[in-house]
Every structure is written in C-alpha cells, then in structure tokens.
Amino acid sequence: MGKHLRIPLLGLLLIFFLTSEALPIPAFARKYSLSCKVCHTPFPKLKPYGDDFAGNGFVIEDKEAPRYYQDTGDNWLSLLRELPIAIRFDGFLSFNNAGNERLDFSTPFVIKLLSGGEITKNISYYLYFFFSEQGEVAGLEDAFIILNNVFNTDLDVYLGQFQVSDPLFKRELRLTYEDYRIYKVKVGQARANLAYDRGLMLTYGLPTGTDFTFELVNGLGLEPADNLGTFDTDKYKNVLLRVSQDVTEAIRAGAFGYLGKERQENINNSLWMLGADFSWSLPKLELNVQYVERQDKNPYFILENPQKIETRGGFAELLYFPKGDDSRWYLAGLFNWIDSDQEDLKYSSAGVHYGYLLRRNVRATIEGTYVFRSDLPDHFRIGLGLITAF
C-alpha cells in the first residue's frame, strides 16, 4: 500500500485507540450516586475535590453511602454489602509506532479490574488487576492500604504497591498516551526508578498549604519474590522526601530528594535523585513542569573501574479547557526530554492531543507525537481513540 493511501485509511480506521493509563473508578460514583464530574474534569484527571476525596480514603465527609455495610448485628464487624468494582477496556490502532510505518490492531491492549473503598472508618484500600496487558496477564500494579487521619491528625499512611512519583504528578491521571518518560528511567542494570515500587508512604499537610511526603521503598520495582518469599534481595531501603507549597491559589511548587542503594553479586550501586516541580492552574489553563537530576555511581555493578552515569530530564505539560469544568472538549500538549551518559536513555518528544467527551465516562481522542531523539529512528506517531470505564 502506498503512503498516499495509508493516511486516509488511518483516518477511517483509528477509532479504538485508547490513550491514557488513567484509572477513574466508576464504583465510587455508584457508591455515592454522584456524577464522575464531581471529581474528574475530564476523567481521569482529578479536580481539587477529587484529590481531597482520594486523600480522605475515598470517603466523602458528612455523606453516608446508603446500605454500604452489611448489618450483621456485630458492631465490631465492618463488612461491605457489595464489593465495589469497575472495569476498564483498552484496545487501539496505531500508525507508525516506533517508526515502523505500519497500522497495528492491538485490541484488547489492556483489560483491568479495579476496586477501592473504605473497609472501616479511616482504613481504605485501592487496587487494580491486569487481566490482560499487551496480550499477557500482568497482575497487580497499584495495590495498597490507606490509614487515614492517623492519631486524629492530617497524617495518612499508605502501605503496599504504589508509584514513587505519585506525590509529584500521577502518571495514571495523565490525559495523553505519551508517558511522563523521566519517571520510568532505569539506569544500567539498576532497578530503581520513580514508577512502581513496594513500601511505605506517609503524607502530612499543614494549614499553611505546605505538604510533606516521606517514602521508604525496596528500590527494586515490582520484581517477584525469590524462592524464600523475599521481595527485597538486599539489606538496603531507598527513601524519598518531598515538600510542596501553595504559593498562591493558582500556583504550587515542590521539590524532592531520593537516596538509594542496591546490591547485586556483592557489588553496590549508590544513587541519588533531586527534582523540582511546578503547577499553574487556572479555570481554563493548566501548566505542569517537572525536572529530575539523577546520578548512579555503579549502575552496571562492575567490580573494577565502575562507571558513574549522570541522567537528567523532565517534562512540560500544557492543558486547555475552553469552558473550565464544563468543557466537552480539551487540548493537551506534552514535551518530554531526557539526557544521559547512557546513550540509549536519551529521548525527546513533543506531541499534541485533542479529546472530546461523548459521555462523562467515554472520551474520544486524537494524538500525534513526534519523537526526535531516541535509540530508534526519528518518527511521527498518530492515533485516534476511545477511552471508557464502567
């Protein structure tokens, strides 16, 4: 097929391309008999109210969900009457992915079962299971327990699997297919990055608009347990500390530091990361910026003459909502940049995304991204899609 025929065919066929990895939970809307618009605009992007709802253990203050718990006659038993679940289905067609000049049907690409809610007062849970991801059963990613308002303070504790970058910008709430690439970078053979890990996260907010986050994680991602049932294969733990501040009602700035160590074959790699982030939110416009600097002392775990590798990068995201919360359509732009001493980590891309809400939980999109620096040839990727959760 000639190139002059491929583009018209693409325009006719790319109707199932599902972009974002975001996770709206219609089960919450069913629980409280509320519209998805209360927390999302558009889904899965969270409004401030949605952030507060998630931070409160998926509970709306002063609003009891009718018949949420089963009445067993035992006041010490908290038993959900029905298990809150939701389903997400992703299938897509893409053209010229990784510069291959092909039209690819990838349906289903993702099928997820999601669940979350309050187990009992101040104790909640959230998880999702991949029935299928890229044609394989992938298992659990997010899966954690939340202890809310510990000691009757604003201290919240998360225990389980989560993304290290969640306090910065949540990858799962982005609107674009193109990812926040810097969060997924792994250097050499080191397994630590800012995506998924297992551990403990503490969050605390002050009335001044100052938020603190502390994380203690294995630093190995979601590697399976060894034959002894141990997830962490060395004695070290990695830590992250983040501080963010509301500068004005529309502007928020933050900074974080990450310190870690990993041991393989009796050889250590020490690493650190420093980063800064910035958000400027208006009713119709939002700008998000992230920068990360990383240094690994021995990421290839070499005994003699270890190679130190420095990596830096970030992203800038611009969102436009013509009618604010009531927008049926929106525009998004995303720029990614990664530079590193490790050549195959270098990456730069720029893309534009358009979305239209067919229903509150059904979103049609079209996105084009040009990748102008990577370990693959430069290429332009385009897709047209539909995203739904129910």
Question: What does this molecule look like?
Answer:
With 390 residues, this protein is mainly β. The protein has a single domain, classed as Porin (Beta Barrel), CATH 2.40.160.10. 7% of the residues lie in helices and 48% in strands. A 16-stranded antiparallel β-barrel has the order 1-2-3-4-5-6-7-8-9-10-11-12-13-14-15-16.
Task: List the defining traits of the structure above.
single chain; 390 residues; mainly beta; Porin; 16-stranded antiparallel beta barrel; 3 helices; globular
- Which range best describes the helical content: under 10%, 10-25%, 25-40%, 40-55%, 55-70% or over 70%? under 10%
Number of separate helices: 3
Query: What CATH first level would be assigned?
Result: Mainly Beta
Give, in spatial order, the strands making up the sheet with the most strands.
1-2-3-4-5-6-7-8-9-10-11-12-13-14-15-16
Described by the principal axes of the CA atoms, the overall outline is globular
Beta strands, count: 16
Question: Taking Cα atoms only, what radius of gyration do you get, to the nearest Å?
Answer: 22 Å
Just name the CATH architecture. Beta Barrel
Domain unit count: 1
In the CATH hierarchy, the third-tier topology is known as Porin
Q: Which consecutive residue ranges, at least 5 long each, have pLDDT under 50?
A: 1-24
Mean pLDDT: 84
- Computed structural class: mainly beta
